[in-house]
Design goal:
The complex is a heterodimer. By secondary structure, chain A is mostly beta strands. Helices cover 0% and strands 48% of the residues of chain A. By secondary structure, chain B is mainly β. Classes of the chains: A mainly beta, B mainly beta.
């Protein structure tokens, strides 16, 4: 059982480049989300989705887009990378959007924007 | 946006000693409190999800309590082992909405042999 799979694990971008961070889960979870982890800060929510075709903004959505065309996949797009987006990104899924269900995290993507 | 606070920020404990640390959160509109264990180079893994005031949960040597009226949760580790070294995250939310969990900054626990 693969759980939540993120690719790539590491990425270096130049300022202004675009890229997509991939996230896939094989647990048939309805709820998926993206967080970023920065030094000295807790995980901060970027975007989330409660099901295929539905997405919404979290705490820090600027500079990122998401889509949810299937239950399994929830890619995160950086439209024009900025140094402020240097961070570790985590994708997480839950079986439903009910807040008493545990989150399953991917291994993370370490992104550096130069 | 909730304010979830964890203390201490870091903690050094001798192997074999017991320890505990705190998560505080707004008690109004409380819905759930999560604890996660995050080892270096791995992804966070759920330890407990608690919803009821007075809840106590246990997994091996690790246990947690919840006080929703005063807005705090304690995580206890009994007889610390080197493999307990990790960052422990708590997260909470308000109102049961779908807008995600708010995480604390974590307590970084180091067990010294």
């Amino acid at each position: 059982n693969a759980g939540v799979t993120q690719t790539p694990k590491f990425q270096v971008l130049k300022t202004g480049q675009s890229m997509t961070l991939q996230c896939a889960q094989d647990m048939n979870h309805e709820y998926m989300s993206w967080y970023r982890q920065d030094p000295g800060m807790g995980l901060r929510l970027i975007h989330y989705s409660v099901g295929a075709g539905i997405t919404d903004q979290g705490e820090v959505p600027n500079g990122y887009n998401v889509s949810r065309s299937t239950t399994e996949d929830f890619p995160l797009r950086l439209l024009s990378a900025a140094p402020s987006q240097t961070s570790v990104y985590f994708c997480a899924s839950r079986i439903t959007d009910n807040q008493n269900t545990e989150a399953f995290f991917g291994q993370g993507t370490r992104l550096t924007v130069v | 946006i909730l304010n979830v606070e964890q203390s201490p920020q870091s903690l050094h404990v001798q192997e074999g000693d017991s320890t505990n640390f705190t998560c505080s959160f707004p008690s109004s509109n409380f819905y759930a409190l999560h604890w996660y264990r995050w080892e270096t180079a791995k992804s966070p893994e759920a330890l407990f999800v608690m919803t009821l005031n007075g809840d106590e949960k246990k997994k091996g040597r690790i246990s947690a309590t919840l006080n929703t009226k005063e807005g705090y949760s304690y995580l206890y580790i009994k007889g610390s082992q080197p493999e307990d070294s990790a960052t422990y995250l708590c997260a909470s939310n308000s109102g049961g909405g779908a807008d995600g969990l708010t995480f604390g900054k974590g307590t970084h626990l180091i067990i010294q042999p």
